[in-house]
Amino acid sequence: MYSTHDDIIRPAFSPVKKNLAFDDRLDRQLRIQGWDQAALDGAKIGVVGDDDLLASLYIMSASALGINNISVIAPVLDETLTETAKRVNPRLNMMFMEGFYTHPVMDDVFSGCSLIVDLSHYGLANKLLLEKGYRENVPIVRGFCYEKDDQQGFKVFTYRKGREWQELEHMVSPNNLPSGHFDDGVLDIIVSGIVLEETKSVLMNQKVSGSIISYERSKLGSLEKDQRILVTGSGALGVFVGLGLAYSGFLDGTFLDPDVAENTNLNRQVLFYDAVGDSKAETLARRLSRFFGINAKAQIGYFKRDTDISSYHVIFDCVDNFESRIVISEKCEEQQKIMISGGTNVDAGQALFYNPAVDERTPAELLGLYDIVDKRTIDAPERVRASCKYRPDPSVIMTNQIIAGFMVDSYRILLAGQMPKNFFYDSKRDGRM
C-alpha cells in the first residue's frame, strides 16, 4: 500500500466519464473506475449524533465527498466543522434538529433517507434505529467510540434487513438513555472515515464489511504535551494529522510543504476551502492556530537531505512520493528521530511506526522503496514531485483521515509508555484491518 500519488505502483484506474454537474473539486474521485458520483449526489443521509465531535466530523467529510443532503438530530454540532462542511461544498443542504433521538415521532426528519448513520451513545436511539431499519428496509451504519475498564476503542457495523444476528447486541449501548460517555477526537477522525466508507459502499451498491469493524488498545491516560513535532506534507494526510494533534492537545507543530492549494484538492483537503492558490503549509498552520489556540508554524519547501530536524521529537511523514519518504527515513535513522509514516490509495493505506532505538528497518526499507525507485534519482527534481495537478491520480478523503488518525494514535501510544504497532487498512477486506 503506497501513497496516492506514487507513480510506480498503482491500480489500473481509468478516468470515468464526468457528469458536467460535478465541479472540478471532485475530479480525483471521479477518476476511480466504477465510481458513481450521481449516487452520492442524489442521496439523502440521516445522522443521529451525540454531544461530541463524531457527527460533526462525519458531516464535514461527507460534504467534501459530495453528499449534499443531510438531516441531523443531535444535541450539538461543532460550528467550526459544520462551517467547514458548508464552505468546502456550497451545495450542502443540511437540516439540523437540536436534541436527542428518543421517540419514533421524530422519524419525519428522516423521511426519504437512503440510509441513516447512528453515531449516538445511548441504547434507546440504537434500538429505535435498528427497528426502523428492519421495518422500513433502510440501511443503518452504526459507529461509536467506547471505554471499558482499561481499554479504549471503536466499533463500526452496517445493518441491513436480514442481518438479524447475534453480533448486533455488541452494537447497542449499555446506557439506555443519553448520558456522559467517552469521546476522543483522534478515534472520532478514524470512525467518521470508516463510517463514510461504509456509507459510500451502501449508496453505490458495493460490498460492505460482513463483520464488525473494531479497534481496541489500552487506555492512554495523561500524556506529555510539550512535544516539538514536524509534519512533512500538508495535503490530505497532513490536514488530518494536524487535526488529530490539535484534538490531542499538542501545542507545538510545524508543517512543511512546498505547494499551494488547488481546486482538485478540496474533495479531501478540507481546510483549504477558500485558499486555492495559497500555501498549504501556511494555510493549515494558520487555521489550526486559530481554531485551537495552538502554536502551529509553517515552512514552505521540500524535505531535503540538509533539512534540520535536530530540534524535533517526532517526524510525521505525510509526503506523496517514494523519493521523499526515502530521504526522511534516512534522515530519521541518522538523527535517531521517531518517525511515523503514512501512505494511502483509494482503497487502502498504512501507518508505520519507526523508533531507531529498537527498529532495525526504516519505513523506506520495510516498504521496499529502494527496489521500487531503483534507477531513479532519489533526490528527484522538485517540480516532478510538487503538485497534484501534475499527477492526477484518484484520491478520496476516507483513507486519508483513517490513516492520519492511526498515525497520531500511534504517537500517543508511545507517549503513554506502550509499544505502537504498524497498522494496515484495506476497505476491500472484511473487518478492514
Please describe the structure with a list of short key phrases separated by commas or semicolons.
single chain, 433 residues, alpha/beta, Rossmann fold, 2 domains, seven-stranded mixed beta sheet, 13 helices, 19% strand, globular, disordered N terminus
Describe this structure in words.
The chain is of the alpha/beta class and 433 residues long. The chain has 2 domains: 33-218, NAD(P)-binding Rossmann-like Domain (Rossmann fold), CATH 3.40.50; 228-426, Rossmann fold, CATH 3.40.50. It is 32% helix and 19% strand. It contains 13 helices and 14 strands. The protein has helices at 27-30, 37-41, 54-65, 79-88, 123-136, 185-203, 236-248, 280-292, 322-335, 363-366, 369-373, 382-386, 397-415, and strands at 44-48, 69-74, 93-98, 115-118, 140-148, 151-159, 213-218, 228-232, 252-257, 295-300, 314-317, 338-344, 348-354, 423-426. The strands form 2 sheets. It has a 7-stranded mixed β-sheet. It has a 7-stranded mixed β-sheet with strand order 10-9-8-11-12-13-14, sandwiched between helices. α4 (79-88) links the parallel β2 (69-74) and β3 (93-98). α3 (54-65) crosses α6 (185-203), α6 (185-203) runs antiparallel to α13 and α7 runs parallel beside α8 (280-292). The radius of gyration is 21 Å and the shape is globular. The model is unreliable at 1-20 and 383-389 (pLDDT under 50).
